[in-house]
Prior knowledge:
Blueprint: H1 2-30, H2 32-57, H3 70-153, H4 155-168
Helix pairs in contact: 1-3, 2-3
Amino acid sequence: MVLPLLKLGTLAVKTLSKPVASRLKQQAALHPRFRELIVRMAQSNHQITTKMQRRIYGHATDVEIRPLNEEKAVQAAVDLIGELFVFSVAGVLLIFEVQRSARSEARKEEQRKQELQDVKQKNENLAEEVELLKHRIQELEQMARGRGLIGILNFRNGNTEIGKAEKTA
Length: 169
């Protein structure tokens, strides 16, 4: 019951993070200081990705890369921020799920260890009982040897007859 609700909760958080990310995008574009920061971030990102693409495709990397205009830079930066936010939420939820799963596995492992310990204890108890029974069998065999073959065959009858003979005497 808890597991489906937990999974449903994580799905809800993931779904709700998308509108939060778009609201974050809107607010990021409106504040002047933050706007300057994200424009620099977008220009740096543009420079890095363009150089990587040029290296991948085998083009010259020493060519000057034109900077993005401010609107495109702001849009690219807020898109990046939104994606990073959604990715961060998904990453945190993934970590949470892995930890929850690890705790569950640890509980199962502890339960298996306890069951194994119980089986070992039961095995030891049975071994002790077997040794006790072996000892009793040896005692009975010694008693039977002392009485001979008649003592083995009439073990119960012999005891009752001896008891009767002692009572009548």
